[in-house]
């Protein structure tokens, strides 16, 4: 016997306009309705278990209907309690009073506001007392439109609340002109005497701290877009050197933006587009910048900085598929970090690398440019070996004679 009574089938038939359903037909349909209900419930329970839940939800039933190629139920969930009504002519039969909605009315009605899930994310309100210009912080127009803040009237049972407006980053006209002039010189007049004087001002001026985030962003953007412009890249690295030399500004909060640009000028496959561009000198200069950042400025504050940088430089050094200029940059970068890095990272792989370079130099079929690049890397490795041997000799010379 079905748990679905025939009266339920008759009421459902009446709700869809079938008023002449016979009792035999209702008795025959009731077991099939029960079977379909059990089938949907079992599929819904499977979806619940796969979702790692112990409570069956309406989403599980919708998924079960979708798996059975049945059109899902449409509508919005209501937080109100369910209201059952007694069916006419039946004492023990109740049904939900669901109002029928015309699709035309639903389509023409304005869309409701979508519910928003609660989420959290972090952003900088201020860095070194300066508010960054990001979408999360209120713009100046919003701040200017606010009336003068007055302390709100506090009730006796509430804690006092101090309302403060967000900080606005305002650059003076002089600082804007200063920034525009230096960036213009770096892009178009990097060989001029005026640019050298600008670098001197950048390394000594005590009032340019508000421009540090703008300079770092400018360097990052121009390096990523101007790898074919050798003069621009060298001018940008000189700007980095000027910022690092200035004792009155704090470059540390923006180090994560400067380091990728400097490392790019060491390990890039190609720097400049002309044969006459001396990209070897640029790689040497950038390697000295990296060593200055790690050993003289920020290595004592960030103990993992040199380790991470060494790992980054070691990957192209050990990869034979990388180009020879990349190998040269990796060798120069590792050598600039000191004899300890040379002893632990370069010397164990020195014989293999020298063997590969000697094969290139012996092969007369190689292009002259390739042989020239191989000579550069070969010379850099020999310099590393020479400096390491001199370091060992100096350490032995410093030991007192009584201990030898």
TrEMBL record:
Q: Which residues does the UniProt record annotate as the domain TATA box binding protein associated factor (TAF) histone-like fold?
A: 2-68
Q: What is the lineage of its organism?
A: Eukaryota, Viridiplantae, Streptophyta, Embryophyta, Tracheophyta
Q: From its record, what is one biological process in GO terms?
A: RNA polymerase II preinitiation complex assembly
**Where is this chain primarily localised?**
nucleus
GO function terms (MF aspect): protein heterodimerization activity; RNA polymerase II general transcription initiation factor activity; transcription coactivator activity
Q: Name one GO cellular component term.
A: SAGA complex
- Presence of the UniProt keyword Cell inner membrane in the record: no
| Coiled-coil residue windows | none
Where's it found, cell-wise? Nucleus
The similarity annotation says: Belongs to the TAF6 family.
Q: What is this protein called?
A: TATA BOX ASSOCIATED FACTOR II 59
Against SUPFAM superfamilies, the record matches this protein to: ARM repeat (SSF48371), Histone-fold (SSF47113)
Please indicate if the UniProt record lists Nucleus as a keyword.
Answer: yes
Q: Which Pfam families match?
A: TAF, TAF6_C
Kindly give the PANTHER family that the UniProt entry links to this protein. Answer: TRANSCRIPTION INITIATION FACTOR TFIID SUBUNIT 6 (PTHR10221:SF13)
Tell me which UniProt keywords the record has, alphabetically. Nucleus, Transcription, Transcription regulation
């Amino acid at each position: 016997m079905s748990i679905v009574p025939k009266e339920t089938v008759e009421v459902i038939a009446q709700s869809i306009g079938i008023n002449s359903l016979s009792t035999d037909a209702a008795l025959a349909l009731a077991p099939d309705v029960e079977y379909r209900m059990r089938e949907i419930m079992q599929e819904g329970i499977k979806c619940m278990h796969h979702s790692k839940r112990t409570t069956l939800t309406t989403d599980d039933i919708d998924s079960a209907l979708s798996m059975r190629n049945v059109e899902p139920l449409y509508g919005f969930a209501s937080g109100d309690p369910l209201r059952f009504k007694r069916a006419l002519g039946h004492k023990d039969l109740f049904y939900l009073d669901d109002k029928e909605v015309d699709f035309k009315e639903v389509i023409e009605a304005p869309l409701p506001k979508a519910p928003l899930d609660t989420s959290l994310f972090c952003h900088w309100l201020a860095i070194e007392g300066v508010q960054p210009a990001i979408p999360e912080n209120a713009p100046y127009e919003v701040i200017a439109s606010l009336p003068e803040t007055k302390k709100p009237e506090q009730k006796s049972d509430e804690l006092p609340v101090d309302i403060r407006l967000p900080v606005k980053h305002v650059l003076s006209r002089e600082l804007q002109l200063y920034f525009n002039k230096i960036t213009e010189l770096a892009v178009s007049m990097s060989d001029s005497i005026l640019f050298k004087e600008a670098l001197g001002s950048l390394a000594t001026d005590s009032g340019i701290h508000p421009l540090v985030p703008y300079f770092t962003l400018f360097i990052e953007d121009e390096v990523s877009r101007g790898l074919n412009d050798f003069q621009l890249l060298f001018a940008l690295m000189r700007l980095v050197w000027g910022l690092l030399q200035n004792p009155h500004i704090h470059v540390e909060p923006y180090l994560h933006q400067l380091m990728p640009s400097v490392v790019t000028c060491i390990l890039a496959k190609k720097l400049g587009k002309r044969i006459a561009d001396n990209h070897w000198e640029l790689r040497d200069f950038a390697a000295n910048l990296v060593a200055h950042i790690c050993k003289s400025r920020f290595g004592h504050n960030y103990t993992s900085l040199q380790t991470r940088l060494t790992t980054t430089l070691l990957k192209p050094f050990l990869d034979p598929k990388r180009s020879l200029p990349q190998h040269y940059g990796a060798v120069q970068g590792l050598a600039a970090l000191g004899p300890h890095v040379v002893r632990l990272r370069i010397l164990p792989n020195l014989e293999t690398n020298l063997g590969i370079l000697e094969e290139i130099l012996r092969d007369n079929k190689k292009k002259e440019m390739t042989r020239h690049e191989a000579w550069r890397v070969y010379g850099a490795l020999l310099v590393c070996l020479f400096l390491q041997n001199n370091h060992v000799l100096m350490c032995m010379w410093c030991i007192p004679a009584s201990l030898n």
